[in-house]
Write a structure and sequence with these properties.
One of its GO terms (molecular function) is DNA binding. With about 210 residues, the protein is of the alpha+beta class. The chain has seven helices and nine strands. Among the domains are: about 5-70, Orthogonal Bundle (434 Repressor (Amino-terminal Domain)), CATH 1.10.260.40; about 145-210, Umud Fragment, subunit A. It has helices at about 5-15, 20-25, 35-40, 50-60, 65-70, 75-85, 100-105; strands at about 90-95, 110-115, 125-130, 140-145, 155-160, 165-175, 175-180, 190-195, 200-210. A hairpin with a 7-residue loop joins strand 5 (about 155-160) and strand 6. The two termini are about 25 Å apart.
Length: about 210
Amino acid sequence: MNTGYQERITQLLKEHGVTNHELAEAIGKGKATIGRYLTKGATRTYPSIEDLALIAQYFKVQPHWLCFGIGDKHTHAQTLTNAVNVGASTVSVYTRTEVPRLLSGEQADSVSSIPVPSKHNNCFGVLYPVSGALSYKWDCVALVEQGQEWVNDDIVLARLPGNDYPEFFTLVKIGAVIHVWYGDDTSKNAIHQVMDDEIDVIGVVRWGTWSKRG
């Protein structure tokens, strides 16, 4: 079981407006128990699989997602099994702020894992920022492939000068100058113009998946 369950429980508490005390009562635990499950300090205790299953049942999410970050909140276990049986692979999904740790070989905390076609098993997933009304109902994961040359109009995960964390950009190279747009919206003017050595392209977005929020 990875420690990402802490972030997933915290996410559910916020989404549903539930306090630690209310959750503890719902699963038959003392009021301080949830706090000890979620702390990263010396007082931390680890929930049993049974307790995590009760928490999943309370929030009406899938226990394999809560415990291990496999699939998403509402992906049934049989769906994952069927996907694997027809040749799917499972890749980990990270936030953009965790990507530098992943690239440096440090322990990066994943937020989930998702089944993908086997041709994408060399990719890793990154949460793609969703704006507007969609952001309240949907999450998007972009699969990022490293070691591939990008071409004009590709969406890439990259860092611009002075930025510690990567963002998603669309790139178009005209002559020696790379024109940069945030995300996939190229309907407005480019936000930056840079040279090859001024942008750190981590990888090219090859495929994406949407999941509806609970």
